[in-house]
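Why does residue order matter? Because the sequence determines the fold. Keep that principle in mind as you read this record.
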Amino acid sequence: MLLHFQDSAKVKTRNVAFETAYYARDSITLSQLRDLSSKRRAIEESINGSSHLTAAIAREMAGGITSPIAQDLLKLEGYLPLLENLIECVQREIDNKPQVRQWTIDLRFRWTSPLSGSTGTSLTGPKYFRIDDLRYELCMVLNLYSALLRERALEVLPLDQVKAAQLFRQAAGVYQHTAENVLPQLQSSLAVGAERPPEASVSVARIMSIVCLAEAQAVTARRAEEKGTTGSLLAKLHFGVVQFLDEALELLQEVEPESVHVSEKFRRFLNICKVLHESRSQRYIAAEFRTEEKLGMAVGVLRHSMNRVQSVRSPNDDAWKPVYKQEVDALVQLLRKCESENEFIWRLRVPRVDELPILEGRRLVAALPYQPFGLDRDFVFVT
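Structure:
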């Protein structure tokens, strides 16, 4: 998109040792539990910034992959099958054997929430949200996996737009799976009215899935721009991004009753990004009117767009400022040209806002469904 929200990957967690909570009846189960802990520890060290591996060793361990983001994705793809398999095995017994449930509580899954608007109370570091449920662990790991897919998409975007769009769609599918298949089962472990991280909210997972689709749509529009597609189609593609973001903003209204506090920065991201893509769409429409010598209509569209952009406060984020300024400057420049041409040559009436054309969108992207890894191993516990 014209702006990017990358905070969702800035998550941290605390250590978990599965073999200390689940008592293995045989050596195979014990080995699998230790493997789980080991793979989780590798992820923990990476996202917490506590890994002591050199870049060369990390590259060798990842089979020659040089991108740290891709390396982390590989670690998650090694951990997720084991975690999903453990949940499936434990769930067979957890409802009938209270002691198994107690072991899950002893694991104490703790994660920070980059999407949270709640302020931390600890003087020693970031705020950790603790929910004692294996499905919370799966929820947060899937959120991290999705966030890193988005980061990877941005990394490959300059070189491979098709791959970038695919990664955004893949991330959308992971968020969708989390919302539909993981979080509904987790809700029974959450106390009514208790504070929870946004990542544990069905609404927020749906919002993030839609944001990923908006990003994939924006990449599609970018490819179309580089191919010299007509302005009318480009306007529809950019307004397709706006339509996705409108859906996300509508869902955001459902979050508050869930006792979830979403960060103001994320809210601003959605609003600013929506207005900028709307502006880009209107610039293409105005340029088409200018080509057709309908300068009055072009001026009306651009003035309305300028009012919309000015209604949004300029972003404070250093990464967003240049993008915002570039888009506003382009809008101002085109408006001046159209006003000048209309004033000195055409002298056409500028229509009222209710006389302007209604924007249309064309959405061309859909989520790629996430398929659980389907690992089938038996865990035999002492109960």
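The longest helix spans residues 264-291.
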